[in-house]
Amino acid sequence: MSFSAQAVLEALNSVVAGRASLHEPEINGNEWAYVKDCLETGWVSSVGSYVERFGEMLTEVTGVAHAVATVNGTAALHTCLLLSGVGPDDEVIIPALSFVATANAVSYCHAVPHFADSDEATLGLDPGKLDDHLERISKTERGQLVNVFTGRRIAAVVCMHTFGHPVDLDGVTAVCRKYGLPLIEDAAESLGSLYKGRHTGSHGLVSALSFNGNKIVTTGGGGAVMTNDAKLAAKATHLTTTAKVQHAWEFDHDQVGYNYRLTNVNAAIGCAQLERLDAFVERKRRLAARYAAAFDGVPGVRYFTEPAGCRSNYWLNIVLLDPSIDGQRDVVLKLVNEAGLMSRPAWRPLAKLTPYRDCPRMDLSIAESLYRRLINIPSSPCLVEI
Ligand SMILES: *Cc1c(COP(=O)(O)O)cnc(C)c1O
Questions:
Q1: Which of 32, 104, 148, 245 reaches 20 to 30 Å from 319, CA-CA?
Q2: Which of 37, 43, 46, 75 is nearest to 263 (CA)?
Q3: pTM for the model
Q4: pLDDT tens-digit profile of 179-198?
Q5: CA distances (Å), origin 351, targets 113, 162, 357
Q6: Does residue 101's CB lie within 6 angstroms of at least one atom of ligand 1?
Q7: Is 264 a residue whose pLDDT tops 80?
Q8: Cβ–ligand 1 contact at 186 (below 6 Å)
């Protein structure tokens, strides 16, 4: 049997009957009660008990010692990069296959993204390929890693857990150690995902979470900086609260800071959502198992399952077309979207976007192939009954 887009639609329909969006939030826990509490008590802005509680809950869920809640995930990433010492004219290694926020956060530091290729097995950074690339293009000069072709310092590596699937953290960590680079985890998509039993976001020097409306847990808009380093956590709080120096009444600010704090209203929603994270993950994993069975034996496509040694939150489910039919992606997208089953391609590789097309990069053939072959299919937890 050969590939047919109709067979993909039928497999999808066998799991998700009728219409379905890509990922919708489920607001039917304590969100109403907690938000009402904020409104009734007047604690609506950046100071309040839900902000504190939300941070504490995040540390409990992830096992990371400190969490600083922020307005969104992009702000969290920006803060992570600043905390890692990224500055003007530095280069930061980031995956080419990621959401644009990963690159934008680097630009906000007046630094330059340096794009790295993906690993087919994880969809995240390929540590072996990164190592070979750094061997070729970098040298250590006065204790700093320098790109010999651009003359710029290479300051950090950002890895990302693509659609919830953990990257090869052992491999990436080893490369970072070898070259003396801090690791930042963009864990925006992977709350609830484990790598060898440990939470994603707990392996790097710092990590960023997102609670945007489409993420597994939402605060409306929100994010968090996570770290095991108490000093960095204190700096994160300082930077995200306009670098205000503590004083009973005086307005004193000791550096250029940011107004990046999460509000109490948003944190209230987040607390109620986090109470249900385990239930969301469990239902998403049941949905994933159904998709895996439905796509088993469908010619030309493969349902992507969690990498070995990992427990994924299956944030967005993925089917991959065989390389031989990578021209068929849009045929499938058109058919299934018209049938009311919202599906989307992966992000266009960042190195191709107008603001980033002149940035340094390695060979990106796997990221480009994944972009031509990957389709995200409906993934809301509500697609599985409670
Ligand atoms: C969602 C997301 C972000 C940023 O999140 P916002 O909260 O929307 O700013 C960053 N990186 C990745 C990979 C994401 O998916």
A1: 104
A2: 46
A3: 0.97
A4: 999 999 999 999 999 999 99
A5: 9, 17, 5
A6: yes
A7: yes
A8: yes
